[in-house]
Amino acid sequence: MVSLTISSASKPPSFAKGFPLTIDVTSDTTVADVKASIAAKFPKFYSARQKISLKTDKKALSDDTKLSTLLGSQLQGGELQVKDLGAQVSWRTVFLIEYVGPLIIHPIFYYFPRLWYGRSFQHSELQKYVFAFVMLHFIKRELETVFVHRFSHGTMPFRNIFKNSAHYHIFSGLFLAFDVYRPKYSATSPYVVGTYRNNETFLWAAAGVWAFAELSNLHTHLTLRNLRPAGTRTRKVPYGYGFTQVSCPNYFFEVIGWLVVCGMTNSIAAWIFFVFGTVTMSLWALKKHRNYMKEFGKEYPRGRKAIFPFIL
């Protein structure tokens, strides 16, 4: 048993004024154990709020890292830093809040057009299809959040919940709902009557492609879930349906689903959400693709792209 000093990398929170802190550790002590010791001293400074790093390096240390691998076998005199990440909220909660926005917003615009457009009108089949697509998509997202997804990171800063939710509540919620349920797309609008937007065969074909994309997206989420045993952060190379050509087929199928909505409506709001979402998912996919290649090396299939087969 030796002593280890924990200093504060920034101004500590008001409920944790005892830094620097000295704790007793062994060669088997992990970063998670250090966090637990700090939380035991300052209960409000719970582990999820803490970022532990070396004094000479600001990079966060993994919870399962042993101190002996960081500071050598001679731990006496070693020093780590802790930074307060602020109040935390679980990723599962964040996702539930993000996806519930469109589920509330779209019915308000769809069922109460007089409030937003000043008059009532008959919805076109196009609007009915789009409404069904949006509601089913986000209901699926909520169910996946509760029953399918396993998160490698348990929490995120509470303040980020507003930024993350804005994308869904504003772009796929307010903007999309206001645009696609307005009179321009109604059953008697010349923009719809006599066009492909009112063609039953086209609408059924669009529904078929959309359903294919949604079910394929669900399938890849289930594949990813089965790669990670409950309660672990285990990562394995994903194989199977969708993964032959790209590292992130879930994003690829998501893109297809929203592209269907854009093609059906040609709504400027739909296109804005589609472009913004596609760029964001492409950046996520490229990062995950690089991480896969770095982590698994030669074991990772070299022919895969990040998100779009043969392209990116």
TrEMBL record:
It is an enzyme of class 1 (oxidoreductase). One of its GO terms (molecular function) is very-long-chain enoyl-CoA reductase activity. Pathway: Lipid metabolism; fatty acid biosynthesis. Residues 155-312 form the 3-oxo-5-alpha-steroid 4-dehydrogenase C-terminal domain. Residues 25-73 form the TECR-like N-terminal domain. It is a multi-pass membrane protein. Keywords: Endoplasmic reticulum, Fatty acid biosynthesis, Fatty acid metabolism, Lipid biosynthesis, Lipid metabolism, Membrane, NADP, Oxidoreductase, Transmembrane, Transmembrane helix. PROSITE patterns: S5A_REDUCTASE. Belongs to the steroid 5-alpha reductase family. The keyword Protease does not apply. Its main location: endoplasmic reticulum. GO terms for biological process: very long-chain fatty acid biosynthetic process. The chain crosses the membrane at residues 268-286. Gene3D superfamilies: 1.20.120.1630, Phosphatidylinositol 3-kinase Catalytic Subunit, Chain A, domain 1 (3.10.20.90). It comes from Crucibulum laeve. GO terms for cellular component: endoplasmic reticulum membrane. It is found in: Endoplasmic reticulum membrane. It comes from the Eukaryota. This is very-long-chain enoyl-CoA reductase. Its EC number is 1.3.1.93.
